[in-house]
Write a structure and sequence with these properties.
- The chain has 22 helices and 11 strands.
- By secondary structure, it is α+β, with helices and mostly antiparallel strands.
- It has 4 domains: 187 residues, no CATH class; 91 residues, Arc Repressor Mutant, subunit A (Orthogonal Bundle); 59 residues, no CATH class; 74 residues, Homeodomain-like (Arc Repressor Mutant, subunit A, Orthogonal Bundle), CATH 1.10.10.
- The strands form 4 sheets. It has a 5-stranded mixed sheet with strand order 2-6-5-8-9, with helices on one face.
- α2 packs across α15, α14 packs across α15 and α20 crosses α21.
């Protein structure tokens, strides 16, 4: 009997970890870009009468990164434990809406910093999010689809495993969603415009377009069969083999290929671009600029976020009540408790803002140190292999913290504005054992394809050979993989696309 009871207890035991309200507040502030932070701070000032702005002129609008890393960020620990009393005072923060880290808002920037232009007024993200209103969805489904939109690659495809998305939704957004629920939401997303968005592979992307009601072709059924059942033959342009398999003559098969190559292999090619008439402003969260001596200056853009302080009137009221606690009436005691809670909450919010600033600067400092060559020269091929774990180790912060810093944030450099995600890329080990940045290989590969003879495009073998001549020794299959990841078709399809446009050389 005792043994049975013991087994039952063991089966029901769980190990859980929860964030204290102060930690939760910090985490949510950390993931906000500067434009969203402005609104968050303004709302907090309105909601908490004990929080107010410092008089203007007492501080700069930008925070400089200290030059000595050893004396920088020691005064605050982003995950410093808080007392139960503080946790109770800040319990209200547990219900603050969690703003998704991938959602960018177009907010008017009032800073005196340079304001880079980044496309037009309505982004592709915005257009996808706007389509949510056209469907009868629950709040949970909307949140899942929003996260799926933020997980799309630049070509509009979803290459992230649905199981990983399920875990991320649970960990970072407290959304318990099964893979089946996510799959259902993904199918809804795949009904959005442009057709093909949200596909998990190029093959699925083409099938979505072929199956669309708007796609009309006398060969539609055959085209679907070819992509669905003979995709490899299609990608290698085995026209004779396909014609024989599907009982068609070569001329008909050539027409089918011409139509198939008109499909869009990158429905999200404008994902980083925007549509509309007016220019949208992207506000950088960081400024990394070189001076005349070649030294890099790293600053945090404060934007229009005011300096904060606890209201002096609240402090005076608390001090006055504290001196005469024994003689306070019931109403005065209630007023004292209220004022103390508001002042404590205001101070906690100020501390969280400072923690955010320290963490952002610490992270940016580590990124610049690893990618210094790029920040000095501006050549994308100088980007070094770097993953979240590397910066986590350099800073002593958690990987999830680095992820939150890198999402939805931009850095202004001497060479333009870049999203922080741009600097994170895996490494590739060549046959000679040299570790290279995948971005360097992809950048060189794209350059070779852009400069090739369009009438006689380079095969993957030829591209591999040219990369080898440039010191980038990679296998043909690696070239093929990177080419597909960038949404670039094989040589035959590139030539065929040119022929379809009637611009091929004789």
């Amino acid at each position: 009997m005792n043994q049975e009871l013991s087994q039952q207890l063991a089966l029901t035991q769980n190990l859980t970890q929860t964030l204290a309200p102060q930690q939760l507040l910090f985490v949510r502030l950390l993931e906000l870009p500067v434009t969203d932070l402005e609104g968050r701070v303004r709302n907090e000032i309105l909601e908490n009468s004990a929080l107010e702005e410092e008089p203007e002129g007492l501080s700069d609008r930008e925070e400089e990164a200290p030059t000595d890393e050893t004396e920088t960020f020691e005064e605050t620990d982003p995950y410093e434990s808080v007392s139960q009393r503080e946790a109770d005072l800040l319990a209200d923060y547990a219900s603050v809406d969690d703003i998704p880290d991938y959602l960018l808002h177009s907010v008017q920037q009032k800073s005196d910093l340079p304001t880079p232009q980044w496309g037009d007024s309505s982004s592709f993200y915005d257009s996808l999010l706007a389509q949510l209103g056209e469907y009868d969805l629950t709040e949970k489904q909307k949140e899942i689809i929003e996260y799926l939109i933020g997980s799309l690659d630049n070509d509009g495809l979803l290459r992230k495993d649905l199981g990983a998305i399920s875990d991320e939704l649970a960990i970072y957004h407290d959304i318990d969603a099964t893979e089946e629920e996510i799959t259902e939401c993904l199918h809804t997303l795949q009904e959005f415009e442009p057709v093909g968005i949200g596909a998990r592979s190029l093959q699925e992307c083409l099938l979505l377009q072929l199956r669309s009601e708007d796609y009309r072709s006398p060969w539609k059924d055959k085209e679907i069969q070819i992509i669905e059942n003979s995709y490899e033959d299609f990608t290698h342009k085995r026209i004779d083999h396909l014609a024989e398999r599907f009982g068609l003559d070569n001329e008909s098969m050539q027409q089918i290929f011409a139509e198939l190559t008109r499909l869009n292999p990158r429905p999200g090619s404008g994902l980083s671009d925007t549509t509309g008439g007016n220019m949208q402003q992207i506000v950088p969260d960081f400024i990394v600029i070189g001076d005349d001596d070649g030294m890099l200056s790293i600053r945090l853009n404060r934007g229009d976020v005011p300096q904060l302080r606890v209201s002096s009137s609240f402090r005076e009221l608390i001090d006055e009540y504290a001196k005469n606690k024994k003689n306070l009436s019931r109403d005065q005691k209630n007023a004292y408790v209220y004022a103390k809670q508001k002042a404590d909450a205001a101070q906690s919010f100020i501390n969280a803002i400072k923690q955010r600033q320290n963490t952002l600067l610490l992270t940016m400092h580590a990124i610049v140190k690893r990618q210094q060559a790029f920040f000095e020269e501006g050549d994308e091929r100088l980007i070094q292999p770097m993953i979240l774990k590397d910066i986590a180790q350099d800073t002593g912060l958690d990987i999830s913290t680095i992820s939150r810093v890198s999402n939805s944030k931009y850095v202004l450099t001497d060479f333009g504005v870049y999203p922080l995600k741009f600097f994170f890329n895996d490494s590739f080990v060549t046959k000679d054992g040299e570790e290279l940045s995948k971005m360097k290989i992809k950048s060189t590969l794209r350059e070779l394809i852009e400069n090739e003879d369009k009438a006689n495009p380079l095969s993957d073998d030829a591209l591999a050979a040219l990369l080898g001549e440039k010191g980038l020794s990679v296998a043909r299959r690696t070239v093929a993989k990177y080419r597909e990841q960038m949404g670039l078709p094989v040589a035959r399809l590139r030539r065929n696309a040119l022929e379809a446009q009637g611009t091929a050389k004789p």
